[in-house]
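User: Show me a protein chain along with its predicted structure.
Assistant: Here is one chain, sequence first, then C-alpha cells.
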Amino acid sequence: MVHYIISHLNILLVLSLPAVLCYRSTSTKKICSGTENGLNKLEVHEKKVERLRMMYANCTVVHGNLEITYLTPDDLKDAGISDLHFLNDIVEVTGYVLIAHNSIKNFSLPSLQIIWGDKKFRPTSDQMVSQFGLLVLNNAFSTFDLSNLRAIHDGSVGIQMNHRMCHWKTIDFRQLLGDNYEKRLIIRDSYGECYTDAVCDSSCLHCWGSEKRQCQKIYRNNCAPQCSSGMCYDVESPQFCCHPECAAGCFGPSDSECYGCSTMRDNGKCVDKCPTPELYDPITTQYVKNPDGKYAFNRDCVTTCPAHMVVYKDGCVSRCPENFTADEGDNVCRPCQGACPKTCIIEQHVNSLNIKDFIGCTKVDGVIEIRKDTFIGGALLQPNGTFIPYDPMTPAQLEALSSVRQVTHYVLVQTEKLKSLNFLRNLQKIEGRKLFDSKYALYITHSFSLQQLGTISLTSVLNGEIYIASNFDLCYIHNIPWNKLIASTHSVAKVRKNREADVCEAEGRTCDMSCDLSQGCWGPGSEMCFECLHWRLGNVCVDDCSTDGEYQASPKQCALCHPECISCTGPGSRNCTKCRHVSLDGECIRNCPQETHFENPATHVCEPCHANCYSYGCTGSGNFVGIGGCNRCKYGVFDEDTQSITRCLRELSAERLCSEFPDLENYYWTVPLSTKIQTEVAHAVCMKCHPACKSCYGYGVDFVHYGCDCLNYTYRETPTSSVCVLQCPKNTFIRPAPDAGRADECIPCDSQCDGCIGPTSTDCVECVTYKDYLSDTDRFNCTNVCPADRPYISADRLCTDINMDEVIYEKYEVNIVENYG
C-alpha cells in the first residue's frame, strides 16, 4: 500500500519553543529538552542557528523531539559556520526526529544511535497516515549522515521528496526497525536525482555515504535462533547473542554491554525495572526504605529525581496524577487531603478560549504565554492538524490569572496592550521544567506599553534565566537583585533596553520612599517594594509595628494580630493582651462555645457549665434546666409539684439508679415520655415513687411489678399479692413487722368484725351481725348464728338464753289481769 506524507503547512506562526533544560544525570550524559513545533515556521528574535546551538550544544540525550526545519545556507553563513557541528554529541532522542524543508547541502547526526519514538509525529489529521519516529521530508541534502544510528525503537520511518540522498537507497532498514520493517517504512518521491547507483566503501554494502566511517551498523543478520533479542555482536559468529535487555545491539554478551536498554539502565546495566525505593520486611510486616532503591527517570534508574520533576510511586514524573499533589519541600506526590489545590494544565498561549480555565487555579502545569495575538485573535493549531479560531481578549480578562501561585514551565509576555502585570501579583514560583527559547523561565520583551511589573509575590525561579528587555516604557526594576530570585547558579538575569533609570526618575516614576531603594521595586507604592526600608506589614512597607492590632513577628516584619485580639504580643488568639469579645482558657474567641460555656457578664470570660449539662450548653452555672442553668439535661430529676426538671445528674443507668443519689431514695429512672420532659431531658429522668413507697423501680404500689418497698404498711389484697398503703384500710389491724426496717402489715379482720384488734371473731371491736359474750368474761364473739344455749337475740343484737317474746307476752298477760281482773 502506498503511503503519502503531506508537505509542510505554509503558515507563519509565533510559537513558544520548549527550551533546552540541561542537567547531568550521570558523568557522561547531558540531557536537553527538545521541541514540539512540527512543520510550523517559527518567528524568533534570535537567529535560527544560534537558537539551535543554545539548545543542543554538548547535549547527548534529547528529552523530547529533535526538529531541524527550514534551514537555509544563509542561516549558516550568518552564523559563520559551514555545518551544524554542535549537534555531533547527540546519542539518543526520546521522542521523534523531524528533518524537513532544509535547503542546506549536507547534514549529519554522526553520534545518534537510538531514536526511541516515545512521542511520534503525525503530520495530518488523516487517521491512516503513520505516526513517525523519523521523518525526513523535502530536503536538499546530498548527504545525510546517520552512520551510528542503530535503532528506531518505535514509530514509522518516512522519507519523501529528498531527491539527492542517494546513499539512503542502500540502507538496510531491517537493522533499524527489526523484523517486519516493511510495515513501518514509507518511501515516496525520493532519490529522483540519483542518476547512478550510490557506491559504498568496499568494506560494506549498506552506507550513509561513500566513506568507510559511514558504513551502516549491521547486527541483526545471521544471528542464531537462540538469540532471543534477535541481535548479535559478531557478524561472523552468529552465536554471540546480545543480552535480552539490550536495544540497538551490543558489543558483548552481558547486560552492561548494550548500546541501549530496552527497558531501564541501572549503573550501566540493562534491567527490566529499577530497584524499588521500598522493600517489604516480612519480620515487621511493613515496607521499609531500600538502601539501594532508585527511581525510574526516562530509561535510567536515578537515586533522586531532578529538581524540576516530582516523585510518584517509583518514578520521576512531570506532574502528579489526578487527586494527588506535591509538597513544596520534597516534591513527592501524595493524595490530597480533601479537595486538591486547583491545578490547570495549560499548553497553549493565553487566549479567549482558555482564559476561563485559569479561574481559581493556584498552579499552572504548563506555561503562561501572553502574546500579541492574545489581544488580536487568531486560530489555534490542534494536534489533528485543524484550526480553531478565537476572539480577541481585553487586558481586564487577565484577572483570571490572579490566583496563580506557581507555574511549572515558563512565563512569557510579549504584547503592546499591557501597562502592568498586576494580574500575576500572587505568582510566587516559576519552576522552569520546560523553558522558552532554549533557556528562559521568565521572558518579557517588546511590551512597549508596559510601565511596571507588579509581580510583588515572585520569590523563586528554580530553573532557567530571566530575560526582560526592549520594554521601552518599563520603570522601577533597575535595582531589583534578580540573583535572589534565580535558584540555579548557572542561570542569569538579562535586563536591558528598558526605560533608562534617569528618565524614570525625571518622570517621577520611582520606588516609594518606604522601600529600600537599593533593592528596587515592582511598581509605585509602599506595597510594591522588593525590600522595605524599615518594616513590612503584609505586602506594605511601614515605619513601625506600634499600632494596636500589630506586633513584631520577626526582624523588619510586622504582622496583624488575630482578629479576636484588640492588642497582642504574637500570632494566634492565645497571644492577645486584650480580647475583642470574650476569652476562654486564655484564648480570645468571638462567642463562648454553647456546648460547655457561658459568658460571665462581669468579666466577659467564658465560664464552664455545670458538668451535668454535658454538651447541651447553659446560661449559667446552675445544675438545673432553665435560666441560669443547663439548656437541657442528659439525665434529670422531675418535680411533680413544679412540673419541671429541678436537677441534672451526671450519670443514670440500670447500674446507677436514682436511689443511689442523695435525696432521691424514693425516685426511679425511666426514659422521658412526655413531650415537655423530652425537651428538657435527653436520655433518662428520675421520677418520684408512689407516696406509699420508700423506694421503687416504677410508679405503683405493687412490689412485684414496680418494686415498691413500703414506707408505712403492707396490705395483702389477695392471698397471693400485696400492696403498699399509707394507712391500713377499714376492717384491718396492724401486725408489727418481725424485723426492724420492714413495714408493718395490715391484716384483714374476721368477716363478722366491724373493726378489730386481731384476726379472730373474738378480736372484733364491733360485730357485723350478733355479739355473743363469752361466759364469765367481758369478751365476746361475733357470729351470724347464736349458739344453741343462747339461741335468742336481744334488741341490741346480743345472743341470750331468754326468749324476750315470751317475757313480753307474760308481762302483757299480767297487766291484763291486774288492770281488768
